[in-house]
């Protein structure tokens, strides 16, 4: 009886004696003496755990090879057609060619500097000391320099010399019914119509059919309307010319 009581006290009492043994748990709601199965035992009763079946991997599509870069093109050497820029316009300057009546200044540097101011005569020549007439008409300033130097050296006047030709500023005047009347520099070849255009063109009161060209005290009547229809009739301007556009009366 003492043993049975001790056993009951050990099962129903509190304290260290009530602690579950390692691996065991007591079911307090069960009748005394029944011991709950350990978790491991429960797992064994429920059978082996099911292993999830791996889904088949999606097929891998092979990557497409990158397209090859096109071969570098060699620049074509064939001429390319371009739009016609129209007739070239002379810009004058160093390309201006002398003509009779032009005034020039010639510098000759030998032992000393000599300067000659002269006019290209009606024959197109200039006359210099010791060598006489030198052809100037049709030459640019630099070409005339070379010609004078060759003449002095070939005629054994000088062994060494420097020649410099100055062409003074040349110009013409446009007056009357133009938008910007005044003196214009004469550079290269300039015609009547080009001179009027350089002066800003006609005003609203201009009469293109009545244009005066004054040259050396002589006046020539010009019909610019007729010239505009037939460019072959256009007149080239000379240094000192005066172009006057008359006013219309209606």
Distance between the termini: 157 Å
Strand order of the largest sheet: 9-8-12-10-11
Shape: elongated
Low-confidence residue ranges: 1-21, 32-36, 40-47, 74-93
Radius of gyration: 58 Å
Could you give the order of the helices and strands?
A: HEEHEEEEHEEEHEEHE
CATH superfamily of the domain at 171-247: Outer membrane lipoprotein wza domain like
Structural class: alpha+beta
The top-level CATH class of the domain at 171-247 is Alpha Beta
Describe this protein with a few key phrases.
alpha+beta, elongated, 5 helices, 18% helix, 250 residues, disordered N terminus, wza like fold, Outer membrane lipoprotein wza fold like
Helices and strands in order, then pairings?
Layout lengths: L1 H11 L12 E2 L8 E2 L2 H7 L57 E7 L3 E7 L5 E4 L3 E4 L5 H14 L7 E5 L4 E6 L5 E4 L6 H7 L7 E10 L2 E5 L1 H6 L12 E6 L3
Parallel strand pairs: 8-12
Antiparallel strand pairs: 1-2, 3-4, 3-7, 5-6, 8-9, 10-11, 10-12
Describe this structure in words.
The chain is built from 5 helices and 12 strands. The chain is 18% helix and 25% strand. Among the domains are: 94-166, wza like fold, CATH 3.30.1950; 171-247, Outer membrane lipoprotein wza fold like. The model is unreliable at 1-21, 32-36, 40-47 and 74-93 (pLDDT under 50). 12% of the residues are buried. The protein is of the alpha+beta class and 250 residues long.
């Amino acid at each position: 009886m003492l043993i049975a009581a001790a056993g009951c006290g050990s099962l129903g009492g509190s304290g260290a004696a009530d602690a579950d043994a390692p691996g065991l748990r007591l079911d307090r709601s069960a009748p005394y003496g029944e011991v709950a199965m350990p978790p491991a035992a429960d797992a064994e009763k429920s059978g082996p755990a099911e292993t999830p079946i791996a889904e088949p991997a999606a097929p891998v599509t092979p990557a497409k090879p990158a397209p090859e870069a096109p071969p570098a093109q060699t620049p074509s050497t064939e001429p390319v057609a371009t739009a016609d820029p129209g007739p070239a316009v002379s810009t004058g300057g160093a390309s201006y060619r002398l003509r009779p009546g032009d005034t020039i200044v010639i510098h000759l540097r030998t032992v000393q500097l000599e300067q000659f101011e002269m006019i290209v005569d009606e024959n197109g020549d200039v006359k210099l000391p010791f060598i006489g007439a030198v052809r100037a008409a049709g030459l640019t300033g630099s070409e005339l320099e070379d010609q004078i130097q060759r003449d002095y050296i070939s005629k054994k006047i000088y062994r060494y010399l420097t020649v410099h030709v100055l062409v003074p500023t040349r110009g013409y005047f446009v007056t009357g019914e133009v938008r910007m009347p005044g003196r214009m520099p004469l550079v290269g070849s300039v015609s009547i119509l080009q001179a009027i255009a350089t002066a800003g063109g006609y005003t609203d009161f201009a009469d293109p059919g009545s244009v005066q060209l004054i040259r050396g005290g002589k006046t020539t009547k010009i019909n610019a309307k007729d010239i505009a229809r037939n460019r072959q009739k256009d007149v080239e301007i000379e240094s000192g010319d005066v172009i006057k556009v008359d006013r219309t009366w209606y």
